[in-house]
Design brief:
- The complex is a heterodimer.
- Chain A has eight helices and no strands.
- Chain A is mainly α.
- Chain A is globular, with a radius of gyration of 19 Å.
- The longest helix of chain B is centred in the C-terminal third of the chain and has 15 residues.
- The radius of gyration of chain B is 14 Å and the shape is elongated.
- The N and C termini of chain B lie far apart (39 Å).
- The model of chain B has no long low-confidence stretch (mean pLDDT 85).
- The chains are: A mainly alpha, B mainly alpha.
- Chains A and B meet through helix 1, helix 2, helix 5 and helix 6 of A and helix 3 and helix 6 of B.
Amino acid sequence: MEEYAFLPPIIASAFYLVASVRLFRLYRRTSERPELLLSVTFAFAGVYYFAYNASSLFGLDPWSLRTEWMLEWVYISSVFPYMIFIRTVFRPDGAWAGALVAICSAFLLVSTGMGTIEGEIVYSLENTWFLVQWVGYTAPCVWMCWEATLARLGAQKRARLGLAQPIVVNRYLLLMLFAAFQVLACVSDLSLAHDMTSTRTISMISNGLLGGTEIASVVVLWLAFFPPPFYANWIERRAATIPTAVGG
Amino acid sequence: MATTLFDIAAERLEESTDMDRLAARGTLRLALKEAGLDVENLSVPQLRAVFEKLMPNELDMRGVANPAATCKAVMDDIASAASTADLATSKSPDEIFKRLGGS
């Protein structure tokens, strides 16, 4: 099983890159910032997941420390546009939201910068920079989950008055689930760090949690950004017959 | 001075009923909350839905005579007065998420 641990991230990377291209094409039509921000987020995430696992996929030697640090910077580069997307969409006028983006950005830049200077990647609960970086990329996922939950509650009320489409209400639910899976993935990073601290090997639990959350994330994003007709029809029909279940 | 659609609607509601400013604004706020709408980013169609479907009941509970007719009169008044206050909603989360999923 362990030799196939790279498969979920590779599948996720392919999906992120396809979604990024689709959102970028949408941006070229609309010139609206949210689609661009999400497109850039998915592009960096896709490149990171693919590159990080390419050595396993192609049976190459493990990446050098320098390459691993470059990949760390690619990863945190996906978090900045993600945070700006959340702020742009849900809290465009919230000063606290700007402060949260600034704090998380500082955490990511300082921890990754200090890690690069120290020159060692240490996935350990005893490594302060690892924990600071973890907070920097976990907080936006928790924030997105919270905002999508609030947005869904409001949209459900609007849908009952005919002011929101059930498929849009459902999209909030899917994004909420995506963010929740990402939080779980972040928790699996802690599990991985615990493994590395105690046994220096990655347990099946950490691998399973990480792989499972990646696949689950891809499924909910696929339904959100590429809703197949049968799914969209099911959501509309369900809202029409069971008004209290609007949006899934 | 009325500046937002909410301000205009609350002002018209106050003029058309016996409610004072605080009661008119509070009643409208409650209805908007029940509808899941943001006071700062209201559009005329959203306000119309609130005045058609929720406000008659809210006014009835507060002893306003002829609530349906009052709501219609207020809404007719707003529709003509609020064209400049009607905010573009292309940046609302609903519109953004509608676009992102291609629907």
